Amino acid sequence: MRGYGQYCPIALGAEVFAERWTPIILRNVFVGCHRFGEILEGAPGLSRSVLAQRLRRLERDGVVERERRGRAVEYHLTDCGMELIEVCMALGVWGARWREVPPEYLDPYLALWMLSRLIDPATLPRRRIVVRFDLTDGSRPDRYWLLLARSGNEVCAQPPGFDDDGIVTVDTGWLVRWYSGTVSLAAAQRAGGMTVVAPPWLVRELAGWGRLSPFADVLPARRATAAGAGG
């Protein structure tokens, strides 16, 4: 990326942060994706070559550090990178408040992938939990499994080989609304947007998972304005 050639701190910061894909890469490393393939999984559309280029740039700028763990290479945020995450989070708050999600941006895999990263395996009430999500809006694939385990979480597009603990039937729009905290599980069920077939303990877990997004409490500006006008 060509620099702005300005001494302004905003310009200097933008030279690092405002490059395409960089905020997404930082987000993924922040939520625990330390290996190249893990970062790539959470960035549909990002090519391997561009990711490699961005990671090299971030390493040169002191934002991430590259560590070798046996034969594997991992990327971790430095103190500089952790401070840059605050910019990421502020951008996310602004986006949640002021931006509307176009329908074509709705991605069931990415919603479940982000959810899998937000759920702490250490908090699971069981050693392994498998939740099947059946999508009703013609998405392909139209079925995913959220596989949660103490050893790590993942999203599968094929049966993971374990019995389902519960089944959620939903379209992509309602799935994203629930994951992002825009609507609670109970409200989605009452509205007919989500159907859950699961034991009570899993329903309680699902209700909690729908509040994990760091932007769950951000009220969109249009709703805040409407609420103020009505008050």
TrEMBL record:
Q: Which UniProt keywords apply?
A: DNA-binding, Transcription, Transcription regulation
For this protein, the record's PROSITE patterns field holds: HTH_HXLR (PS51118)
Q: Give a single Pfam family match.
A: HxlR
Q: Which residues form the HTH hxlR-type domain?
A: 8-103
Keyword flag DNA-binding: yes
CDD domains this protein is in? HTH_ARSR (cd00090)
InterPro entries on file: ArsR-like_HTH, HTH_HxlR, WH-like_DNA-bd_sf, WH_DNA-bd_sf
Q: Which PANTHER family match?
A: TRANSCRIPTIONAL REGULATOR, MARR FAMILY, TRANSCRIPTIONAL REGULATORY PROTEIN
Q: What is this protein called?
A: Winged helix-turn-helix transcriptional regulator
Source organism: Nonomuraea maheshkhaliensis
